[in-house]
User: Fold Na+/H+ antiporter NhaC-like C-terminal domain-containing protein from Polarella glacialis.
Amino acid sequence: MINIRACSALLVLLGFGAASSVDVCTTWMVAPSSCPEFTGATIKGKEDRSSAEILSGINFAGSVSFEWKASNATIALPNATRFTLSLSGDVAPPKGGDVKIAEAAESADIPVMFTSSGGYKTAIFIITDSTGACPTVQHTFKDARTEALPYVFDKGVVLIPFIIVFIIVPLTQNVFFGLGFAAWLCRTIIARDPWIGFLDLFGRALNEEIKGWLGEIMIFMFLLGGVVGGCVRSGGIQGLGEMASAYIKDSFLAMLVAYFLGWAVFCDDYANTVIVGSVVRAVTDKMHLSREKLSFIVDCTSSPIAGLMPLSTWIAYELTLIRDASASIGYTHETEYILFIASIGKRFYAWFMLFFVFWNCALCVDWGPMYVAEKRARAASDGSGVVNTGDKSIQDWEEDQPIRMKKNIPARWLNAFIPFVCFIGTFLPFLFYAGVQKVTMPVATCEPGCYGDNEITWESPTKDILANANNFAALRWAAGVTLIVQIVLYAVQYDKTRGSRMKGCLLSPAETIEAQLNGSKLYLEGIVALLLAFTYATALRDLGIATFFADALGETLTPTTLPTVTFILCSLFALSTGTSWGTMGVFFPIAFVLAQTVTKEPINSDAFTSELETTLAAVLGGSIWGDHCSPVSDTTILSAMSSQVPLWDHAKTQLPYAFFAGVVSILLGYLPAGAGAPGPLMIIIGFFLIPVFHVGLSKIPNFGGPIEVYCPEVGECIGEGPWGAMNSIKRSFKKSSNSQEAAP
Assistant:
């Protein structure tokens, strides 16, 4: 028998998000009958991905590469249908089928799925001959270090800290304990030691979060709290509420003002959240609107609007993710900006949530926990029901607040209006300034539509300037200017009857600074909640929850179900981690690879482009949906802070509404769009069906119903539900007509 040395086979297994390399060297012997034979193999591998060292049974995409050579000549395997390569163990074809070896092939690149088990792999290769002329050959590649396999957890362990938050927080009604405990549990699992997990959490993890962009958010929130504190202490907030009540006559109009103001501040979700909540709260309190409803309106308009707008601080991040994900699958048919614009008509959750908030305000009906909160707010004739004070009276609750209006001074609305206008008016110019001043390092290549690769000047397009801007710097600059304006504004309002020298000021500079410091305390609890939420989210990501979700549902995908599954996966991740941006960063690469895997269309074609638009819209929509449902979300916390409502009260009242909008998005959006339905048509249908579903749920006894429209001018309600809204509109038109007739 003449033996011919065949080849070396290279097995490259790429673990998600990390570098993995496994060198498989084998020698084939080909007998005169052209029958292949294994003579030996070794495996050397190192798995650097942290979650692969923690969890077992997680599948990662990879490939098997083979080359056949005999000296300098190529060995041609006889027939493509004759020899079949089967893989098992930790390596298997993605669809679970066998691989046909092509005739006269010099090499083969076979996609496989690799099951990680702490970084140690076993692969079983079986070659069979369909004619039976050659015997079946089997060889097992086994890592010699398998006996030293470290202790790993079942992959389902990632669900424990995820679920425990949603058990502890409702039971204790304390977000801080729930987040802190879950973060410690994640670190304990990763470290495999509760004491090391404790040391890691308090010795490193919290500090690392503050070093990042959370630190920028915290500084801004302290500054904004100072602005609010000055407005409260000077009597501006109380005066603004009294002035606004002359124009905004009832709770129905107050809700609409909050909703449309959310549309007006479209450029940034954080700015939207804190500005709208802080400005409108004095008005909604006057109208006996619950702060839970205000925080819901604020929260559920901020991210959807910022995500939809092609001119916002979101666009740079989204375009970068789309560009990188497109490059990873070799997609070049359209630029990332074209994909972004085209996906707007398929972002069903953002549109449907905005529609739902509008109809909720317009119809004046509620259900679930929000119905209870709104009934409580209307029931108290003195307005004390706008916030849940627990066992305390409203007087005791107000006494506990860190800042109150100074006694014996006039309540002038301009003392709040001017600072808020200053903040809003300087934010946008500062945002453009930040976009021009920010220095970005150029990248090696730049396809049309990418941003941050070239120098940005004042002559650059608006979208490029905004895409390059540091929105946190702009927010801090605007807050800093406003704090200085407040010191001057309150000092120049001098009345000698109040005393001599500084005592005659409405607020002396020292009093204003003290009020600003006390105002920062308004946001202290929210800042601590943000810190714990970010720490918990990072720990959960390190534990590998994204891979778990993708692995759990990835095998069931078709082009029709891909958008829906992607939407659900992203919402689960955002729900668990509380970050829409983090969810986008994790799932954009995964979603694009899944789209490439399940599609039946050529990658660079119009048909695949349409599928890709729906998929990326599902990533963006699911990120916001989970963010709205999560009690640990940054915008959830900021909305509660700006509306001055307990975080748990905001989370529990918003969750059913966000869940409703998400389910409608699946049924009327992502499922039909996955089947080929036009996105804009489904959005129009949703606009008209959402109020039908909403009113239907409010008809359930003891679950929902119409809400009274309160008018402080008459000191009572002017109607309830849609009839109350109609009465509000009639009163407004009547007063407008009377004013015109009275005018000379």
Notes: Residues 214-389+408-706 form one domain. The first helix runs from residue 159 to 172. The mean pLDDT is 74.
